[in-house]
Structures are given as C-alpha cells and as structure tokens.
Amino acid sequence: MFTGLVEAVGEIVECKPTSGGVRLRIEAALAAELAPGDSVAVNGVCLTVIVSEAGQIHADVGPETLRVTTLGVLPPGSAVNLERPLRADGRIGGHLVQGHVDALGNIEELRAEADFHWLTISYPSPLAPYLVSKGSIAVDGISLTVAGLGLSRFDVQVVPFTMSHTNLRRAQVHDRVNLECDMVGKYVVRVAEIAGLSLAPLKTGEVRH
C-alpha cells in the first residue's frame, strides 16, 4: 500500500527484454534503502525489487503490467516517480494507493497560473464511475485532487513543490500517464453494481469546476 507522496525521482538506465516482459534498471537515491524482495512504486506501479546495488534498482515487469501501464514504452533517461510502501505506523499524507494501475491517461493541456500548474488529462470511459469532483486520483503515482471533471477528461492543479519534486517537471502535452482511481470509490461502485443500482453517467460537456 502506498500514499501517492513521491519520495524521490529516479531515472531509467535500461529497459531490457526478458521472456515475456522486461527488466528495468533504475538509477535511484532510494536504492540504498531497498533490498531484494521489497516493493517499490515506479510511476504508480507496484514492482518487486530484484537487485539493489551501486545506486540502482532492478525490477521485472510482466506482460500484463506492460499492457496496462507506460513502463514498457519509457526510454532510457525517462524520469520516474518512486515511493516505498506505507509503514503501518506511518502517516497517510495523500490517499490510499495500491500501485495497481486502472488505465492510461493522456495529458491534453498543461498551463501555468502564477507559480501553479494546471493539467487536463483525458481518461477512458470505463473510469467515469470512479471519478468524482474533489476526489483523489493517482497520476503516475502522485496523489492529486480532481479539481474539474468532464465526460472524458479531468483537471488537476499542481502545487510548485509537487511540480519540482516529481516527474511532472518534465511533463509535456500528449504524454501518457498511469491512472489509479480511489480505492474506496471502486468498492462503492462494485457494491452498487451487485445491488443492481444504475449509475447516472456524466453529461457531455466541458470540464466543470
């Protein structure tokens, strides 16, 4: 379990094909604090550390994870957000994040407002029931608040600290990002489905704040 509060930004050194998947080699300041078998979130994807030495961590990525996340298409030199799992006695500063990506989003707009930044991110329609205005969403493993919500896109506002201490400082329009919806919301929607309740769809239109 994670909180969406990025601890460090690493850099992909190598993405080596393996039988059915890839092995990532990531240069990371956290390497000295990780051991083989430990979990680490990489751009919001929970991975298992295979090797941790010389300031680098190695982690295998399976074919299903490659299919549903961006990890298989990130070239060497890409910046990735890193977070260790939440300790049982730790503070939850963001929101509960499993490291299980629900879908890929696309950065449609990136604009500055004084020292802050707005991101507009498009999302696939199956995610619509899990997104609520002022609710939480993990974007590449970063806990953010849905500030505006539309039929197929949402807005988030990024504070200066988050912008400078995550991979968002390199973000560009058309970049793909990993999305994970709020875990509690997913259980609520599932219970509603089992109970036979119909979910009212959002109305077509612009992003609403």
Q: What is the CA-based Rg, rounded? A: 17 Å
Derived structural class:
mainly beta
CATH architecture of the largest domain: Beta Barrel
Can you tell me the number of structural domains? 2
The major β-sheet equals: 7 strands, antiparallel
What is CATH's topology name of the largest domain?
Elongation Factor Tu (Ef-tu), domain 3
Low-pLDDT runs: none
Shape: globular
Main features:
six-stranded antiparallel beta barrel; 2 domains; 3 helices; 38% strand; mainly beta; Elongation Factor Tu (Ef-tu), domain 3; 209 residues; seven-stranded antiparallel sheet
Structure description:
The chain is mainly beta. It has two domains: 8-83, Elongation Factor Tu (Ef-tu), domain 3, CATH 2.40.30; 103-194, Elongation Factor Tu (Ef-tu), domain 3 (Beta Barrel). The chain is 11% helix and 38% strand. It contains three helices and 13 strands; from the N terminus they run E-E-E-E-E-H-E-E-E-E-E-E-E-H-E-H. The protein has helices at 63-68, 160-164, 183-194, and strands at residues 8-17, 22-27, 39-42, 45-53, 56-61, 79-83, 103-113, 116-122, 136-139, 142-145, 148-149, 153-158, 176-181. It has a seven-stranded antiparallel beta sheet. A six-stranded antiparallel β-barrel has the order 1-2-5-4-3-6. A hairpin with a 4-residue loop joins strand 1 and strand 2. The longest helix has 12 residues, at 183-194. The model has no long low-confidence stretch (mean pLDDT 92).
